[in-house]
Amino acid sequence: MSNRYNESKLLVFNTLSRKKEVFEPLKSPFVGMYVCGPTVYGDAHLGHARAAISFDLIFRYLKHLDYKVRYVRNITDVGHLENDADDGEDKIAKKALLEQLEPMEVVQYYTVRYHKNMDQLNVLRPSIEPHASGHIIEQIEMIKKILDEGYAYEVNGSIYFDVEKYNASHHYGILSGRKIEDLISNTRELAGQSEKRNGFDFAIWKRAEESHIMRWPSPWGDGFPGWHMECSAMGCKYLGDQFDIHGGGMDLLFPHHESEIAQSTVANGKPPVRYWLHNNMITLNGQKMGKSLGNAMSLDDIFTGNHPLLEKAYSPMTIRFFILQAQYRSTLDFSNEALQAADKGMKKLFAGMETLKQLKTDKNAVSIDAKAIEKACYESMNDDFNSPMVIANLFEAVRVINSLKAVDGRLQPEEFEILKNLLQHFLFEVLGLNSEEGTGNFALVDGLMQTIIQLRQEARVRKDFTTSDLIRNKLGDLNIDLKDGKDGTSWEVR
Amino acid sequence: MSNRYNESKLLVFNTLSRKKEVFEPLKSPFVGMYVCGPTVYGDAHLGHARAAISFDLIFRYLKHLDYKVRYVRNITDVGHLENDADDGEDKIAKKALLEQLEPMEVVQYYTVRYHKNMDQLNVLRPSIEPHASGHIIEQIEMIKKILDEGYAYEVNGSIYFDVEKYNASHHYGILSGRKIEDLISNTRELAGQSEKRNGFDFAIWKRAEESHIMRWPSPWGDGFPGWHMECSAMGCKYLGDQFDIHGGGMDLLFPHHESEIAQSTVANGKPPVRYWLHNNMITLNGQKMGKSLGNAMSLDDIFTGNHPLLEKAYSPMTIRFFILQAQYRSTLDFSNEALQAADKGMKKLFAGMETLKQLKTDKNAVSIDAKAIEKACYESMNDDFNSPMVIANLFEAVRVINSLKAVDGRLQPEEFEILKNLLQHFLFEVLGLNSEEGTGNFALVDGLMQTIIQLRQEARVRKDFTTSDLIRNKLGDLNIDLKDGKDGTSWEVR
Fold first, then answer.
1. Does residue A428 sit at the B interface (CB-CB below 8 Å)?
2. Does residue B187 sit at the A interface (CB-CB below 8 Å)?
3. Closest chain B residue to A141, measured at CA
4. Is the ipTM of this complex over 0.90?
5. Contacts of A136 in chain B (CB under 8 A)
6. What is the pTM of this model?
7. Minimal CA–CA distance to A55: which of A274, A264, A350, A280?
8. CA–CA dist B378, B3 (Å, integer)
């Protein structure tokens, strides 16, 4: 694969090896990437945003490097039980019962809202978005293979994966670093309380009790798939027995991804994934977020400012920029201060783009070594998608632009092109930011504002302060502030 | 069911009886409605818009009458073969092969675009939007029942519905009015060319050839469901063995809906649907629309004006209003003149709403019999969803509002409330129009425009024609026209 910047190779941190590795796709230029999507029984929150944006960044950068990426992100609409365990109610079915709806009405409602939020965050749609409930046959077929290989057993119409047997010839814990001995002591159970041979075994098919709504016929009677099965079956169906990248939040590392590896390895005879990538979590003022802790907030809450812990509403782009200001594997703490700083920082970058447009090219201008800044951006992305370093380099570019403007506003034509492309490629394409959100039709609004600013300027020249005051008051009613600087007047929505 | 306006009962034209019938849901206040959605292998065109808007109108009105509607509209992503026949390639698989994509990438791409178009047209999302490929098990189970009942036969791994046997005890043609004798003469085939016993038999399961990409295991070997099966299976799964309304375009009446009735009647022992509703087609300048006729245009073409037959771009709301100006069972001819007339008409209604806001209430004002206009709106909707009659009544309301404005601008407080609610309920809720599309953040843009209009007015007063010319030119650059009338100046985007 010839990257645009193959001077430095793309390194990705592989959870499997616990180190950064050179990224080499199985069938370059094709890349297969699977990421665990939401369980659609509630509104999307910050954790959903971080996972989606982290892998959106990776998807966008791989495409920028001219890879042909098939990106699969699933919708979990069945089989995900409470507490991510083998017992308890199905999360979707429970919500459906509460709301007196058919489970698929719950799924539709929250899927549409999830898509709306992701569109607001400028997260690209994946290439395929399969539903777990739409792939029951594929899951049953895979369970049959696992049974045929002898790594699962049936009890009363449920099928459990035999972790002890698997671990005798493979390594259950290869991804999470857990040891089966520790698992044994952590899952000791009272005798007779479970159908499982061992507490760490997990269900790959569950018998449906009479009252269970979501059920399908199977060779073992009516039931539904275990949570971990869907990703193994759909990853294999759309990306093959082995594919390049599997991503998800760190909270999914164990048991979900560990179990996926075991299932797929047994069914297909080889480990399913080359590179396992995991994004870190978001804390709120240093605390874990959760409904029981009273600090959970949905993305809609944040976008509207409708939560007691929020000082104001924060736009989707502010949230996106805030998330990209940390590398995806770092912890990230959510606070009003951090968001307001993110908002300021982002505006500074966009202002820098505008300033660049005002500069003039001159073959004899002093070089600013724009090439070095561009190189640094690629090196940052190639170092495990280090978006905060990219942002730091873009700030450096803006600093240079502003200092040129302060001197004589001239730079070399080639360097102008490099800076223009740099901002275009990284700010819009790779980081996926856009400056038009929040104001609707930005070009039209800006056109009207420029007209008004000019009218105000002319009123001032003729000392018509009635008119200039009228303009300021009218704009104030619309929550628009004018700022007079030495380069003219700018405007912003409060 | 106590409707808001139960003085007149809701009548719907039932294709099954070929007459208008009083609408009485099986389990009022619950209503189950199934509508055939798109086969997602290409961009949505006017036909998609008319079907979606017709049943969106019905969905909205039933909800307005306080029915609890479960609205299922499917996505066809497998089994729909070329020419809607039993032979030929699968439409999705063919497109996938052409584009060198996995079929589900094609499905995702066009489904996302379909949703975008429907959102632009302000079509509400259905309660459930099931994919055909996600319900293979349900289809296989239904095929098994049909086989068990003896109304289907297997040939080389394909299953065909036995129309002749069905017609001996039931009536194949009950919906479309076709006679099996006519079908026989129309489907006479050369002997040995088909696996079917009779040309009018239809596949409910097709054997997948080696090269066929979309395939699932079944009791009859690897294959895929026939096109008509999905709607029978998904309708039954989400709405029960019998439900209230089944809708779709008239082009689906035969063989699709006729075959659905036969399948479901055999599998469930009773006819599936109480009321069959069909929307009519759209012609273009009097001609049928189609790719081979060179006059096919996508919704995106229309919204951007990017087609040689279009004089300009037409906004999604103009298209919506144009479609609602015909009753859903009438033919509708698409032309530049008709669209421009629709655009004008719609703007007149919105202008009327603004004028209403300027009126003053006065207990002693003369009565305008607002109640009669409201009653006429309900009677129109209750007469098989006669949206053009509703629109005519709303124009009457606007005529009254304008004449009040011309006299002394006063009306009775109760009548003010009736007119306000009438416009709110019918224009926004039931017809589903909104005035803010096309200009993004309409309130902000309008606020800026009002400021500019005032500045222009003041410039004129002081005979400062330099300023007023500047304003006209600047707005011209932004494609905004000003119109001076006796009630002041209005603006519109060209």
1. no
2. no
3. B217
4. no
5. 137
6. 0.88
7. A280
8. 11
